[in-house]
Amino acid sequence: MNEDPIPLFRSWNGWYALLIGVLVLLVWCFHLLTEHYA
Amino acid sequence: MSVIDWVVLIGTLVFIVVYGAWKTRGAQDLEGYLKGGNTAQWWGIGISIMATQASAITFLSTPGQAYADGMGFVQFYFGLPIAMVILSVTFVPMYYRLKVFTAYEFLEQRFDLKTRSLAALLFLVQRGLAAGITIYAPAIILSTLLGWNLTATNVFIGVLVILYTVTGGTKAVTQTQKQQMAVMMGGMVLAGVMVIRMLPPDIGFGDALQVAGKLGHLNVVDFDFRLGERYNFWSGITAALFLFLSYFGTDQSQVQRYLGGRSLAESRLGLIMNGLLKVPMQFLILFIGVMVFVFYQFDRPPVFFNQVVEAQVKASPQGGAYADVEAAYYKLHDQKRAELYGLVTAARTGEDAQVRMHQAEATRLLQAAEGLRTEAKALIRSAVPTAETNDKDYVFMGFVMGNLPIGMIGLLFAVMFCAAMSSTASELNALASTTTIDLYKRSVRKHADERHYLRSSKLFTLAWGLLAILFATYASLFENLIQAVNLLGSLFYGTILGIFLVAFYCKSIQGHAVFLAALLAEALVVWIHFANAAGTAPGWLTMGYLWYNAVGCGLVIALGYLLQPWMPKAEPPIQRLA
């Protein structure tokens, strides 16, 4: 397995947390959009 | 279309094909041809993954879907970022460690040859037929809009793709996808800006959102759990998750995109980029559809969006009745427009009661207009029995052709052709790889030299391309077959994913057990489908097709555990492949 440096974060978990965090944020924004204009 | 539109369309396509073929010219070895020489960077991988998934139908149908039903379809993609995490943690490192060319090669190292061959064959059947549909589905719409012959449109798309995919292999596919993605996203963003600018001068962007929301078209998230409902939050993060795990983790047309990465880190970042951008991208495409919906609340839309069919009905004996429906439709439309102006004015001044009153009336008028459209479709069916009465795929391009300025129309057609080409290229590339590596090199001709396999890969790419064109050309003769092909993905993906999940996580299950479990699971999924289609499935087995993925996958794992104690001891997996 290669040992390439991981940009931005210390481990891949940082990237995974970012990905899931962005998803949660998007779903929350979509929920607000749905509620606000219903 | 004007001359400028033709120049934009043809110029864009010819430039991409010629540049792609030229940039990747020269001699290559098998690794270079099938894995692009492992030179792709993360952003190139990300673009390639996204361009492969975004077919022409994505851009033709999705805005039309938002026009008809609103934004709910975006929830289907909520499982995608989660799938990217799971793939980055498990599948991708394993593929890299074993240095495989195809996903199925890994299965022989873990189980045995028959399991590898079964998965490869399932992929070839499903993807081989789907490649024809990837060409045919947009060709039938684009040929109608452009007034082209359907077969000529199929051949046009197919030959353009074959030209650079055969000569340049994976490198050419990845190279051209960069330009194609730029055209696709650039064209769609411009179209989005244009539709907002074309709203009436007294309707601002905020007013447009009010109109869309109050008419039920900004219903992005639905947290109510219903198994029969195709798109809600829960089906998105569970059932669709299984579909995306199968598609990105075990479908060679996607696996090949990230196996060409410079390193494991680049491949992982490419997948993460896809996870970050896919939901916003789908949101954008759906949102453009919603803005087209708002545009047509103020501007008169055609009663039926396929203008060719509409012209045929008007010229038929049903033309008079159709004109009556049309007149009633526009009367309702004008009343609805007045209500919506009332709604917008009330919303600006914060008069909630007035807003609710106008909303109720506008919704009633919208439903009444939809009723008239149903009447119009009945007339179309009697005048032109062969016509497709679902016009949702014509909504967006109908809007483009009728309203966008010269140049933009050509660009938006280029978007559709680029999308068709980018998906088809990945499919042909993957079909050729699997045929060469998993079948030809493994089981037919095991000891030829590198140049022979390179030549074979090119020939297989050409053969799959010609087959795709042939299937696309005859697809219209087999309407039921097309439906079957669309279903094949859902029917097969669960089983294939189950085999891979057993390989990764269920160490005690060996080749014989997983092979039998896969065959049984596939038979059960097919039975569940037919029971659902015939309406004879018991209540607890009634489900939307998205759930077949989860069911097939679960069945392979459960049956694998059940069968393993009864199986003879499997031969130890081979360490290296020829």
**Gap between N and C termini of chain A, in Å?**
51 Å
Beta-strand percentage of chain A?
under 5%
Structural class of chain B: mainly alpha
> Largest interface by residue count?
A-B, 23 and 35 residues
- Give the N-to-C terminal Cα separation of chain B: 55 Å
Give the CATH level 1 class of the largest domain in chain B. Mainly Alpha
Number of domains of chain B: 2
Low-confidence region ranges of chain A = none
Topology:
The complex is a heterodimer of chains A (38) and B (578).
Chain A (H helix, E strand, L loop, with lengths): L11 H26 L1
Chain B lengths: L2 H21 L6 H6 L6 H12 L2 H14 L9 H20 L4 H8 L2 H34 L3 H48 L7 H10 L18 H5 L1 H12 L1 H8 L4 H35 L8 H8 L4 H31 L2 H32 L8 H12 L4 H37 L5 H25 L4 H27 L5 H24 L12 H17 L15
Helix pairs in contact in B: 1-8, 1-18, 3-8, 3-12, 3-13, 3-18, 4-13, 4-17, 4-18, 5-11, 5-13, 6-7, 7-8, 7-18, 7-19, 7-20, 8-13, 8-18, 8-19, 9-13, 11-12, 11-20, 11-22, 12-18, 15-16, 18-19, 20-21, 20-22, 21-22
Describe the structure.
The complex is a heterodimer of chains A (38) and B (578). Chain A is mostly helical and 38 residues long. Chain A has one helix at residues 12-37. The longest helix of chain A has 26 residues, at 12-37. Chain A starts with 11 loop residues before the first helix and ends with a helix. Chain B has helices spanning 3-23, 30-35, 42-53, 56-69, 79-98, 103-110, 113-146, 150-197, 205-214, 233-237, 239-250, 252-259, 264-298, 307-314, 319-349, 352-383, 392-403, 408-444, 450-474, 479-505, 511-534, 547-563. Chain B is globular and about 75 Å long. Chain B folds into two domains: 3-296 and 402-474, Up-down Bundle (Sodium/glucose cotransporter); 314-387. The relative contact order of chain B is 0.17. Chain B contains 22 helices and no strands. The N and C termini of chain B lie far apart (55 Å). Chain B has 578 residues and is mainly alpha-helical. At the A-B interface, helix 1 of A face helix 5, helix 9 and helix 13 of B.
